Amino acid sequence: MTESIRVLICEDQELVRTGYVTIFSTQTDMTVVGEAADGRAAVELARRLRPDVVVMDVRMPVLDGIEATRRLAGPGVEAPPKVLVVTTFNVDAYVYEALRAGASGFLLKDTPPARLLDGIRTIARGESLLAPAVTRSLIGRFAERLRPTDTSHPERDHVVRTLTRRELEVLQQLAAGLSNAEIAEKLVISTETVKTYVSRILTKLGLRDRVQAVVLAYRIGLVRRED
């Protein structure tokens, strides 16, 4: 039997939080392990309860969802949970900052329940929730922020040294917004081989999902904004 996905809900509106509990509790593959009404409580509960996925609101009292995400899943955090940011505000800056903070996905609160449940399962599997085209559009808009200011870039040097030439090619195509099938067609390799390369890239660079790989590629200047 498949192990249940342990979910922690972080939402300051009690009605919304109760709705989440009701929806998630009906799923045979999910268990709600805790609820938090602010970011600080979410961080404390997550560290104690070790959920697989944290459903995180952005605008909350005491500590906002972006900072709470950073503390739970940001750089240097050991064994971080997956964070799914769910908010009322469809603001690019929120999405960008959430992904930079370590979130694995982003949805709006008016998302249908089935899509929300699918989102939790998706990031629990270690996949990013954003579609390749959405990722490209989103990160591309903030490429200027991410680009290195000079040609001397230790993080870029580390990536180049760590990955093989083919893995660098796959990372570039990944960051350009291509799906596994599209990368396979462009590089004339099988889709399964692409999956293997993506897995190796994430493992070698200590990344949790494709979204983090895209952010990294732009941050070190491995890809450039086209528009």
Provide tags for this entry.
227 residues, Rossmann fold, 53% helix, NreC/VraR/RcsB-like_REC, 12% strand, CheY-like_superfamily
Structure summary:
With 227 residues, the protein is an alpha/beta fold. The chain is 53% helix and 12% strand.
Order of helices and strands: EHEHEHEHEHHHHHHHH
Largest sheet: 5 strands, parallel
> CATH superfamily membership of the largest domain, which one?
Response regulator
Return Rg in Å. 18 Å
CATH class category name of the largest domain: Alpha Beta
Principal-axis shape equals globular
Helix fraction by DSSP (H/I, runs of at least 4):
40-55%
CATH architecture of the largest domain: 3-Layer(aba) Sandwich
Modified residues (4-aspartylphosphate): 57
Protein name: Two component transcriptional regulator, LuxR family
InterPro entries: CheY-like_superfamily, NreC/VraR/RcsB-like_REC, Sig_transdc_resp-reg_C-effctor, Sig_transdc_resp-reg_receiver, Tscrpt_reg_LuxR_C, WalR-like
Organism: Actinoalloteichus fjordicus
